[in-house]
Structures are given as structure tokens and as C-alpha cells.
Design a protein that fits this description.
Blueprint: E1 4-9, H1 18-33, E2 37-40, H2 45-56, E3 61-65, H3 70-75, E4 86-89, H4 93-104, E5 107-111, H5 115-126, E6 131-134, H6 144-147, E7 158-161, H7 164-181
Parallel strand pairs: 1-2, 1-5, 2-3, 3-4, 5-6, 6-7
Length: about 180
């Protein structure tokens, strides 16, 4: 069975380092190259770039929408449908979508991002999911190390890298390790 890796990142690419824009597409490509399925929030910005990268590699891309229907997804939320093989219309708005998307994944990669990305990170963290952080991509991603220092209830399952190929590889190893231990991922 293929692992499902969610990409969490800013839906807006304003104020995002140019490198992060290029790296988001590379992350999508690497997820496919390494035999996995991409999951995103069926949104714009960095997650859409990851979906484009996945499709360029002929991979599978699944989007979780905050909308309750395709029409609502397009008209009310103004979100794209291109580059997705499947879109799950959750009908739960952004916070509900974030929960379902994150829980559907075996691991989560954080690229840059804002408050929604932080929400997806904290869901994954609390659910003890393996997490990969693309360092140097700005926003939320570059704050995670400091957020996870200090007293915690659990040991973080987080890997960090500046390189998309290495990050996906490290995350897959962490997912396999957790599955071997019998931990839910």
C-alpha cells in the first residue's frame, strides 16, 4: 500500500520566499517519485504547486475541500479543481477540512504557511503523526523548531531538511518506523 503524505502550506504565496515556491512543486514530485500519494487541502498556493508537481510525475493527488460540493468549492471558496484525481468535499469549513485531511495522511510535510498551516501542524503533532518540515521555507515551517522546544507531553516525531528529496525520504522512514512499532499513523 502507498503511504499518503499531506502537504500543508500557505494558500497565498505573497510574502513567501521564492525558493519555497520552487520547492513546493519539487515536494509534490518527490512524494510521487518515492511511491507515495499526495494529499492537500484542495487549495491554492503552495499546496496547489505540490499537486502540480505530483501530476507532472503522473502521481495521484487527493484534495480535501472545506466546501460541501464542487459548486461551493469553485464559487463560494474560489478554489481550484485542476491537478486533483479526487476531491473530498468535507462541508466542514477550513478547520474541519484540516482535521480530516491531516487524519487521512500517514505523514505531513509543512512548507512555509500561516495560521491554517499551524492548525494542520498542531493536529498532526497532537495525533502523533510523523511530520516533515521544509526548513528555510519561511512562515510557520521556520517556527516549528522553537515551538517544539521545552516541556512537551510527547517526544516529537519531526524530521527537518532544506532538501525536498531528503525530507520525503526521511519522512517515509519515520512513517515505516512508526508503523513497524504498531503506532497509529
Amino acid at each position: 500500500m502507498k503511504y499518503k503524505i499531506a502537504v500543508s502550506g500557505g494558500a497565498s504565496i505573497e510574502n513567501v520566499p521564492t525558493d519555497a515556491i520552487v520547492l513546493a512543486r519539487q515536494i509534490g514530485k518527490e512524494i510521487v517519485r518515492q511511491g507515495c500519494v499526495l494529499i492537500t487541502g484542495a487549495t491554492t498556493g503552495l499546496p496547489l504547486l505540490a499537486a502540480q508537481g505530483a501530476k507532472e510525475e503522473k502521481g495521484i493527488s487527493i484534495g480535501f475541500s472545506p466546501a460541501y460540493s464542487e459548486l461551493s468549492h469553485i464559487r463560494s471558496f474560489k478554489l481550484p479543481t485542476d491537478f486533483f484525481d479526487v476531491i473530498v468535499y468535507t462541508g466542514f469549513g477550513y478547520s474541519g477540512r484540516n482535521l480530516l485531511m491531516t487524519r487521512a495522511a500517514d505523514g505531513v510535510i509543512v512548507i512555509s504557511g500561516r495560521m491554517g498551516t499551524l492548525n494542520e501542524f498542531t493536529i498532526a503533532f497532537e495525533d502523533k503523526k510523523p511530520i516533515g518540515v521544509l526548513e528555510g521555507s519561511g512562515g510557520t515551517a521556520d517556527r516549528i523548531r522553537s515551538l517544539t522546544k521545552g516541556p512537551l507531553r510527547q517526544k516529537p516525531k519531526i524530521v527537518y531538511s532544506h532538501d525536498p528529496r531528503e525530507l520525503v525520504e526521511m519522512l517515509i522512514k519515520l512513517i515505516k518506523k512508526e508503523k513497524k512499532r504498531g503506532n497509529k499513523v
